[in-house]
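Example 9 (inverse folding). The structure is encoded as follows.
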């Protein structure tokens, strides 16, 4: 994993919060990962309407997300102030039993309190 940060060593909270997010989602800890988001946070993900707030995020992770289980591997992580960009790979199983393997990019905005106010996800997959 490569990492670059423009922040001093003592200001790694945004990157740490993002790493924690992936650990919690891979462990299936929906309650824990929801607490990483601000109550009014927005999540933008291809194929879904914008998700806003804890209730919509929880419904997504428990009911709508097509992924059953799997593991994220972070290949790169860059921070600039309170913004974190992640490049990685996901491998897992979908709810319909199919295997999934996809590269992704995530962009997080982290508040001074260390919670996400915004997340936007992109997937590397041929569409056009």
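The amino acid assigned to each position is listed next.
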């Amino acid at each position: 994993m490569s990492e670059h940060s423009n922040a001093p060593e003592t200001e790694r909270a945004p990157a740490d919060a993002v790493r924690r997010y992936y650990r919690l989602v891979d462990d299936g800890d929906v309650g824990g990962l929801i607490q990483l988001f601000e109550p009014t946070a927005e999540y933008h993900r291809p194929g879904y309407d914008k998700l806003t707030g804890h209730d919509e995020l929880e419904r997504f992770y428990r009911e709508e997300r097509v992924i059953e289980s799997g593991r994220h591997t972070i290949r790169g992580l860059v921070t600039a102030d309170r913004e974190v960009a992640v490049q990685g790979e996901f491998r897992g199983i979908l709810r319909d039993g199919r295997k999934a393997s996809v590269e992704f990019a995530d962009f997080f905005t982290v508040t001074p309190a260390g919670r996400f106010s915004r997340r936007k996800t992109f997937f590397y997959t041929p569409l056009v």
